[in-house]
Write a structure and sequence with these properties.
This protein has 220 residues and is of the alpha/beta class. Helix content is 47%, strand content 16%. A five-stranded parallel β-sheet has the order 2-3-1-4-8, with helices on both faces. A three-stranded antiparallel β-sheet has the order 6-5-7. α2 packs across α3, α4 packs parallel to α5 and α6 crosses α7. The protein is globular, with a radius of gyration of 17 Å. The chain is built from nine helices and eight strands. The relative contact order is 0.18.
């Protein structure tokens, strides 16, 4: 099963994708994570992407589509969770082609609906395990034991340079202008399911499980 998690920055896509990896053996395909890795290593892609990401603008469609293509060829698992991709109409078309070439197709687009003001608080409080990337929040999801990752036990955490209020506003504007307009394209095909992303992490998880486990909803 191949699915897209769609929603503005801070909607909870990464949190839910990580959980689906752990519980279902699916593979998270986060173009944000791939780009951050490229920046860290200093690849040609990373050198191009760094300033664009720091400004909260979108990296070019051809770069991110190529990253997804490479990852689809490496990954096994029971299906892909696209997280932060596609973000434009061109990327949505590229995804159709990339999946089609591999005899795959999109099964679901899960839209996380959230209140924009709450997102600023979510993003400015976000941090992650420096070892395994598990995501946490200063108020909403602290590690069970202070200073220790629930998933891997590491003690180092990190914050993203673009998780500040000003950049978040730009990222939200990019989402509204370029990403939200691709939803009707998936709606026409009956692929979209909406989830209340303002509910707790556990409630959102349960709703997504319900969608993925509903065989009726997969036969369309
Ligand atoms: P978030 O999940 O908080 O929205 P991401 O980690 O997905 O953030 O993305 C961080 C940044 O990486 C974006 O602001 C953008 O600059 C770049 N980026 C990630 N995915 C894409 C994409 N599919 N297309 C263009 N730019 C992207
Ligand atoms: P995205 O990948 O969509 O940008 P994340 O999954 O990284 O979003 O979530 C952003 C921040 O909000 C993280 O710190 C995460 O722990 C927290 N978070 C995620 N889902 C929820 C939720 N349902 N309620 C409260 N906080 C949440
Ligand atoms: Zn960890």
């Amino acid at each position: 099963m191949d699915i897209i998690l769609l929603g503005p920055p801070g909607a909870g896509k990464g949190t839910q994708a990580q959980r689906l990896e752990r519980t279902r053996g699916m593979v998270q395909m986060s173009t944000g994570d791939m780009l951050r890795q490229a920046v860290k290593v200093g690849t040609p892609v990373g050198l191009k992407a760094k300033a664009v990401m720091e400004a909260g603008e979108l990296v070019s469609d051809s770069i991110v589509s190529a990253l997804i293509g490479e990852r689809l060829d490496q990954a096994d698992g029971t299906g892909a969770i696209f997280d932060g991709f596609p973000r434009t109409g061109h990327q949505a078309q590229a995804l159709e082609i990339l999946l089609g070439e591999r005899g795959r197709k999109l099964d679901r687009v899960i839209e996380l609906e959230v209140d924009e003001e709450a997102l600023v608080e979510r993003i400015t409080g976000r941090f992650a395990c420096a070892n395994c990337g598990a995501s946490y929040h200063d108020r909403f999801k602290l590690p069970q034991q202070e200073g220790t990752c629930d998933v891997c036990g590491a003690h180092e955490f990190k914050r993203r340079p673009d998780d500040n209020e000003q950049t978040v506003r730009t990222r939200m504007a990019e989402y509204r202008a370029k990403t939200a307009p691709i939803l009707p394209y998936y709606e026409e095909r009956g692929l979209v399911r909406r989830v209340d992303g303002m509910a707790s992490v556990e409630e959102v998880a349960a709703t997504i499980d319900g969608i993925l486990d509903d065989p009726g909803s997969l036969s369309r």
